[in-house]
C-alpha cells in the first residue's frame, strides 16, 4: 500500500454539539487533524474530553455537527476508528487470552460470516508482534500487567486496521517505565500514519507525550501543535473558564 | 452389568434420555452467556415467572403444550420488561425491581394453580417430572433447540464482542440491544423446553452450573459454549440414571450431579481452583509477571 497524500487523511470535525439530557456537554466544537499525529486532549474534569472521544467513536448521538474522515462523512460506527475504553470497564476475568482479544479485532472486520483465513491469522500475528506481546500471546488477560493490558487493546485496534485511535486516559495509573513504553509505542503508531487522540489530565507530562493538543472546556479553546497551542494563555483560559461554563449550564437548566 | 443397561430397555426411558440429553445440551450452551453477562438473577427471575403463565395457560387451554408455551412466554416477558420499566421510572435499580416482580409473579402462580380445575400438581411444575415427558414435549424441546443453538452459533462473533465489551461492540456497529433481546428470547424458550425435566425452581442450576464449571477450567470462549453444552448433556443423563436407579426425583438428581462436578472443579481446577489459590502466593504471581515483561526480552536481543 502506498501512503496516500496527507491531505486526504484529515479528520475534520465541524460544529459538533453533544448534549446529555438537553444540557450541552460540548458546544460547537470544530477542528481538523492530519494523520500521523499524537494528540493530547486536555481540559478540566467535566470539560467534555470523554464526551468528545465517545462522540467520535459513534457512541453518543450528535445534536449538531459533522465528522469526516478521508473527506467522507461518518454517520455512526466505523471500523476506521478504534475506541479504547477505560480499564474499569473491562471484565478482566473474561475467558480469553491475548490472542483471543486481538482476534476480536479481526472479527469486527470480518463480520458474522466470512471465514477466518490465513491472512487474518497473519494480521493478528503482526499486530501482536507490533505491540511486543508475542511471548505473552497465550496469557489470560488478567495475568498481564497494566501496561501489557493496554498494549493488548492497542493490538486489537491494529488488527481491526483502525486509523484513528481514541484513548480515554491511557496514561492514568501507569508507573514511569510503563508510561515511557506506551509513549514509544504510540509514537510508532503515529509514525505509521495513525492518528492518536488521547485524553489526559496531567499537564506537566504533556510536552513529553504529545506533539499536538486539543484544549477543551465545553467548547474548544485551542487546537494545534504544541508550540502554538499549548501556551500559558490558552491553558489559563482552559482551566479558568470552567466557572462561567458551569454558570451558563445553571441558567440553562 | 445388566443393571447398567436395564433402564434403556424401556421405551419411555429411551425417550427420557434423548429429551434429557437435548435439554441438558441446550441449557449448558446457553449458560455461557448467562455466566459471562452476569444474568443469573435475571435468568432465575424469568424461570420463576413462568409459573403464573403456566397456570393461566392451564386455565384457558387445559394441559395442551401450546397453551402452556404461550402462557409461560408472555409471563416471562411481562416480568422482564416490567422490571426494566420500574427500574427506569423510579430510583430503584434493576435487581431490586426484578426481585420484587418475580416473587410476586411466582406467588401469583402458586395461588392461581390452587384454583385450577384441571388436575395438575404444583410439585410437578416446581421440580419437574421428566417421566411425564410426552411426545409433544419432546417435539417442543427439539424445535426449540434447533432454533436456539444454530441461532447462537451464527451470532457467535457479535455475541463474543458484545459480551466482552458492549461499548466497543456499539462503536463497531453491532446492534447490542437487539442482540440482548435475541439472547433473552433464547433464554425463555430454552426454559420452556426444560420445564418438564427440572421444573421452574431447579432450572437455573442446569442452566448455569455447566458453564460455570468450564469457566473455572479454561480460558476459552468457544470451550465455554460447547464444553458447557456437553457437560450439561452428560450431567442430565447421569442425573437421570441416578434418579432411575435410586428412585429419586429427576430434576434434583440432575442438579446434584452438576453441582458435584462444579465443586470438584472449584476445588481442583489446575489454574483457578481453591487448592491452586492457596498454594500459589500473590507474590509469586507478581514475580512471574515481571519475568515475562518483554522489555527484558528486548534488552537481551539488542
The proportion of strand residues of chain B reads under 5%
* Helix-and-strand structural type of chain B: mainly alpha
Question: How many structural domains does the protein architecture of chain B include?
Answer: 1
Question: What value does the Rg of chain B take, in angstroms?
Answer: 22 Å
| CATH homologous group name of chain B | ABC transporter involved in vitamin B12 uptake, BtuC
Provide the number of structural domains of chain A: 1
The shape of chain A, in one word, is: globular
The CATH topology of chain B? ABC transporter involved in vitamin B12 uptake, BtuC
Mean pLDDT of chain B: 85
Q: Mean of the pLDDT scores of chain A?
A: 85
Spatial arrangement of strands, main beta sheet of chain A = 6-7-8-3-9-10
Number of helices of chain B: 15
Specify the biggest β-sheet of chain A: 6 strands, mixed
Q: What is the alpha-carbon Rg of chain A in Å?
A: 18 Å
Q: Based on the structure given, which CATH architecture of chain B is correct?
A: Orthogonal Bundle
Query: What is the correct CATH architecture of chain A?
Result: 3-Layer(aba) Sandwich
CATH topology of chain A: Rossmann fold
Query: Biggest interface, and residues per chain?
Result: A-B, 40 and 32 residues
Largest sheet of chain B: none
How would you describe this structure to a colleague?
The complex is a heterodimer of chains A (253) and B (302). Chain A is an alpha/beta fold and 253 residues long. Chain A is built from 9 helices and 10 strands. With 302 residues, chain B is an all-alpha fold. The radius of gyration of chain B is 22 Å and the shape is globular. Residues 294-302 of chain B have low confidence and may be disordered. The chains are: A alpha/beta (253), B mainly alpha (302).
Task: Note the main attributes of this structure.
heterodimer; A: 253 residues; alpha/beta; Rossmann fold; six-stranded mixed beta sheet; four-stranded antiparallel beta sheet; disordered N terminus; B: 302 residues; mainly alpha; ABC transporter involved in vitamin B12 uptake, BtuC; 15 helices; 83% helix; disordered C terminus
Amino acid at each position: 500500500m502506498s501512503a496516500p497524500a496527507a491531505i486526504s487523511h484529515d479528520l475534520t470535525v465541524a460544529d459538533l454539539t453533544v448534549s446529555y439530557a438537553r444540557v450541552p456537554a460540548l458546544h460547537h466544537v470544530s477542528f481538523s487533524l492530519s494523520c500521523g499525529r499524537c494528540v493530547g486532549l486536555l481540559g478540566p474534569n467535566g470539560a467534555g474530553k470523554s464526551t468528545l472521544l465517545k462522540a467520535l467513536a459513534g457512541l453518543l448521538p450528535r445534536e449538531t455537527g459533522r465528522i469526516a474522515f478521508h473527506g467522507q462523512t461518518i454517520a455512526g460506527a466505523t471500523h476506521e476508528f478504534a475506541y479504547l475504553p477505560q480499564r474499569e470497564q473491562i471484565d478482566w476475568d473474561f475467558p480469553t487470552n491475548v490472542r483471543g482479544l486481538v482476534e476480536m479485532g479481526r472479527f469486527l472486520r470480518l463480520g458474522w460470516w466470512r471465514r477466518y483465513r490465513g491472512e487474518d491469522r497473519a494480521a493478528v500475528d503482526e499486530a501482536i508482534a507490533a505491540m511486543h506481546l508475542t511471548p505473552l500471546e497465550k496469557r489470560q488477560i488478567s495475568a498481564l500487567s497494566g501496561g501489557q493490558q493496554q498494549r493488548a487493546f492497542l493490538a486489537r485496534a491494529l488488527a481491526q486496521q483502525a486509523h484513528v485511535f481514541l484513548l480515554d486516559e491511557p496514561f492514568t495509573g501507569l508507573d514511569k517505565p510503563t508510561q515511557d513504553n506506551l509513549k514509544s509505542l504510540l509514537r510508532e503508531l503515529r509514525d505509521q500514519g495513525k492518528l492518536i487522540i488521547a485524553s489526559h489530565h496531567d499537564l506537566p507530562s504533556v510536552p513529553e507525550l504529545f506533539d499536538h493538543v486539543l484544549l477543551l472546556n465545553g467548547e474548544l479553546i485551542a487546537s494545534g501543535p504544541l508550540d502554538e497551542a499549548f501556551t500559558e494563555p490558552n491553558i489559563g483560559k482552559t482551566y479558568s473558564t470552567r466557572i462561567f461554563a458551569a454558570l451558563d449550564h445553571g441558567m440553562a437548566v | 452389568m445388566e443393571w447398567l443397561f436395564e433402564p434403556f430397555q424401556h421405551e419411555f426411558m429411551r425417550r427420557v434420555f434423548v429429551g434429557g440429553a437435548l435439554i441438558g445440551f441446550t441449557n449448558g450452551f446457553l449458560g455461557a452467556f448467562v455466566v459471562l453477562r452476569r444474568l443469573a438473577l435475571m435468568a432465575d427471575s424469568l424461570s420463576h415467572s413462568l409459573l403464573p403463565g403456566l397456570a393461566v395457560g392451564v386455565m384457558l387451554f387445559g394441559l395442551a403444550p401450546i397453551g402452556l408455551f404461550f402462557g409461560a412466554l408472555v409471563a416471562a416477558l411481562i416480568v422482564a420488561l416490567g422490571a426494566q420499566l420500574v427500574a427506569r421510572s423510579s430510583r430503584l435499580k434493576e435487581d431490586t425491581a426484578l426481585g420484587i416482580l418475580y416473587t410476586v409473579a411466582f406467588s401469583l402462580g402458586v395461588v392461581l394453580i390452587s384454583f385450577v380445575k384441571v388436575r395438575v400438581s404444583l410439585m410437578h411444575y416446581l421440580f419437574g417430572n421428566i417421566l411425564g415427558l410426552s411426545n409433544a414435549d419432546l417435539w417442543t424441546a427439539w424445535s426449540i433447540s434447533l432454533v436456539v443453538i444454530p441461532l447462537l452459533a451464527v451470532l457467535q462473533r457479535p455475541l463474543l464482542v458484545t459480551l466482552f465489551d458492549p461499548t466497543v461492540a456499539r462503536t463497531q456497529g453491532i446492534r447490542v440491544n437487539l442482540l440482548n433481546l435475541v439472547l433473552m428470547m433464547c433464554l425463555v424458550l430454552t426454559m420452556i423446553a426444560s420445564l418438564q425435566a427440572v421444573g421452574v425452581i431447579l432450572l437455573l442450576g442446569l442452566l448455569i452450573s455447566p458453564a460455570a464449571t468450564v469457566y473455572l477450567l479454561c480460558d476459552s470462549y468457544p470451550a465455554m459454549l460447547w464444553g458447557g453444552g456437553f457437560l450439561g448433556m452428560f450431567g442430565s443423563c447421569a442425573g437421570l440414571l441416578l434418579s432411575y436407579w435410586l428412585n429419586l426425583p429427576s430434576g434434583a438428581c440432575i442438579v446434584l450431579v452438576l453441582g458435584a462436578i462444579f465443586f470438584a472443579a472449584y476445588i481442583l481446577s489446575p489454574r483457578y481452583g481453591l487448592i491452586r489459590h492457596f498454594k500459589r502466593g500473590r507474590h509469586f504471581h507478581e514475580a512471574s509477571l515481571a519475568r515475562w515483561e518483554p522489555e527484558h526480552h528486548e534488552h537481551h536481543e539488542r
